[in-house]
């Protein structure tokens, strides 16, 4: 129980949550200090964490009037599967820190909102149990472990449980310096386990392009690389044969002072030149942010922290609420920019 007399898992009044910033504020009241700091904090001096938001805010939109937006279409097809709208749940660790129902609540919330949920390697619930309650596709985020045989088994387990894509995180050779996390004495409670990642995230053994080839030699689902910021790496990704990339700076949590993802996105999109889908995450909080990301070359976006906060506020319903707020805002932003579908979101939507 914290100072407001609200404890983790208590119900909050969902009608008070009007936007994603409200969700964060409410979550801060319901979460333990340690859990809140773990989710909210960034690396180093948190420049990148702030830039993710500031760079999105600084972009102005260029609306077109008198176009027919009576039939809005937000669908996008990724790897043969049609999403009703281009927003996915980013992989985040330790959901039982945020809510006692953990990843089961996240999966239920994603299902109710018709969204793809990318399950973290550091899930605190076994994939088998998540798969049982999921009603929408799951993807799996992979941290490559020192033990390559165990890594292979994990990929095969994820595929056996129906995960439809594999996001290999490539920006976390080590985890970033997180001073707020250190000050809050972050430790995983004894009753919170990570069944697919026994042991802490230790320093990974070298993970190189050779390993990406190796992973693709047995993966039966599309492989995406998560954590690309550099156009030269984007080109290498295409050459390596992967099915997609995620432009990400890990939500500002790893290497501080790398640019905002929305700043990196246009260069990456140019390098990729539509050969494979480019997804993006980092700081997406408003429907207008989604419009900006798609206009600058993303096929879809992912949201991390807001989903954690929604989960902390109200379990599955909180997760659904976060996605529904963002989806509705996206629809309004498209209508008001005069663009009825995602294909018509291009550089002309950005004010220059
Ligand atoms: C609490 C938390 C845990 C995370 N855990 C993982 C993880 O296990 N694997 C991973 O690839 N990314 C992880 N990330 C990064 C997210 O997938 C994503 O890149 C980032 O949160 C997006 O930025 P946003 O939080 O501003 O939406 C985590 C992020 C947060 C906030
Ligand atoms: O916190 C993170 O961003 C992250 O990716 C992670 C997940 C589990 C263990 C350590 C770091």
TrEMBL record:
<feature type="binding site">
    <location>
        <position position="250"/>
    </location>
    <ligand>
        <name>glyoxylate</name>
    </ligand>
</feature>
<dbReference type="InterPro" id="IPR000262">
    <property type="entry name" value="FMN-dep_DH"/>
</dbReference>
<keyword id="KW-0285">Flavoprotein</keyword>
<keyword id="KW-0288">FMN</keyword>
<comment type="similarity">
    <text>Belongs to the FMN-dependent alpha-hydroxy acid dehydrogenase family.</text>
</comment>
<feature type="binding site">
    <location>
        <position position="120"/>
    </location>
    <ligand>
        <name>FMN</name>
    </ligand>
</feature>
<dbReference type="GO" id="GO:0016491">
    <property type="term" value="F:oxidoreductase activity"/>
</dbReference>
<dbReference type="Pfam" id="PF01070">
    <property type="entry name" value="FMN_dh"/>
</dbReference>
<dbReference type="InterPro" id="IPR012133">
    <property type="entry name" value="Alpha-hydoxy_acid_DH_FMN"/>
</dbReference>
<feature type="binding site">
    <location>
        <position position="38"/>
    </location>
    <ligand>
        <name>glyoxylate</name>
    </ligand>
</feature>
<dbReference type="GO" id="GO:0010181">
    <property type="term" value="F:FMN binding"/>
</dbReference>
<feature type="binding site">
    <location>
        <position position="226"/>
    </location>
    <ligand>
        <name>FMN</name>
    </ligand>
</feature>
<protein>
    <submittedName>
        <fullName>Alpha-hydroxy-acid oxidizing protein</fullName>
    </submittedName>
</protein>
<feature type="binding site">
    <location>
        <begin position="281"/>
        <end position="285"/>
    </location>
    <ligand>
        <name>FMN</name>
    </ligand>
</feature>
<feature type="binding site">
    <location>
        <begin position="91"/>
        <end position="93"/>
    </location>
    <ligand>
        <name>FMN</name>
    </ligand>
</feature>
<feature type="binding site">
    <location>
        <position position="141"/>
    </location>
    <ligand>
        <name>FMN</name>
    </ligand>
</feature>
<feature type="binding site">
    <location>
        <position position="253"/>
    </location>
    <ligand>
        <name>glyoxylate</name>
    </ligand>
</feature>
<feature type="domain" description="FMN hydroxy acid dehydrogenase">
    <location>
        <begin position="12"/>
        <end position="352"/>
    </location>
</feature>
<keyword id="KW-0560">Oxidoreductase</keyword>
<feature type="binding site">
    <location>
        <position position="143"/>
    </location>
    <ligand>
        <name>glyoxylate</name>
    </ligand>
</feature>
<dbReference type="InterPro" id="IPR013785">
    <property type="entry name" value="Aldolase_TIM"/>
</dbReference>
<feature type="binding site">
    <location>
        <position position="248"/>
    </location>
    <ligand>
        <name>FMN</name>
    </ligand>
</feature>
<feature type="active site" description="Proton acceptor">
    <location>
        <position position="250"/>
    </location>
</feature>
<feature type="binding site">
    <location>
        <position position="178"/>
    </location>
    <ligand>
        <name>glyoxylate</name>
    </ligand>
</feature>
<feature type="binding site">
    <location>
        <position position="169"/>
    </location>
    <ligand>
        <name>FMN</name>
    </ligand>
</feature>
<dbReference type="InterPro" id="IPR037396">
    <property type="entry name" value="FMN_HAD"/>
</dbReference>
């Amino acid at each position: 129980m914290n100072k407001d007399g609200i404890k983790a898992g208590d119900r909050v009044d969902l009608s008070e949550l009007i936007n994603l910033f409200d969700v964060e504020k409410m979550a801060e009241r319901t979460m333990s200090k340690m859990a809140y700091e773990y989710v909210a904090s960034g690396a180093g001096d948190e420049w990148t964490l702030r830039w993710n938001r500031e760079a999105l805010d600084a972009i102005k939109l260029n609306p077109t009037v008198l176009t027919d937006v009576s039939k809005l279409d937000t669908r996008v097809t990724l790897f043969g599967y049609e999403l009703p709208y281009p927003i996915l749940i980013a992989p985040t660790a330790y959901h039982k820190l945020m809510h006692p129902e953990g990843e089961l609540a996240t999966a239920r919330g994603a299902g109710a909102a018709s969204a793809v949920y990318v399950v973290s390697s550091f899930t605190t619930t076994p994939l088998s149990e998540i798969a049982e309650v999921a009603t929408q596709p799951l993807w799996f985020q992979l941290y490559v472990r020192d033990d390559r045989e165990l890594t292979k088994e994990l990929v095969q387990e994820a595929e056996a449980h129906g995960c439809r894509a594999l996001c290999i995180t490539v920006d976390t050779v080590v985890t970033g310096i997180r001073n707020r996390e250190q000050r809050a004495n972050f430790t995983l409670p004894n009753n919170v386990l990570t069944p697919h990642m026994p042991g802490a995230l230790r320093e990974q053994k070298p993970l190189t392009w050779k390993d990406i080839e190796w992973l693709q030699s047995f993966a039966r689902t599309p492989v995406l690389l998560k954590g690309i910021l550099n156009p030269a790496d984007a080109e290498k990704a295409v050459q390596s044969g992967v099915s997609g990339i995620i432009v990400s700076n890990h939500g500002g949590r790893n290497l501080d002072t790398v640019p905002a993802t929305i700043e990196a996105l246009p260069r990456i999109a140019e390098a990729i030149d539509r050969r494979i889908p480019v997804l993006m995450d980092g700081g997406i909080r408003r429907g207008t942010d989604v419009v900006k990301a798609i206009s600058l070359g993303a096929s879809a976006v992912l949201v991390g922290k807001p989903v954690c906060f929604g989960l902390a506020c109200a379990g599955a319903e909180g997760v659904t609420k976060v996605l529904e707020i963002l989806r509705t805002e996206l629809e309004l932003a498209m209508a008001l920019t005069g663009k009825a579908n995602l294909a018509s979101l291009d550089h002309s939507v950005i004010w220059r």
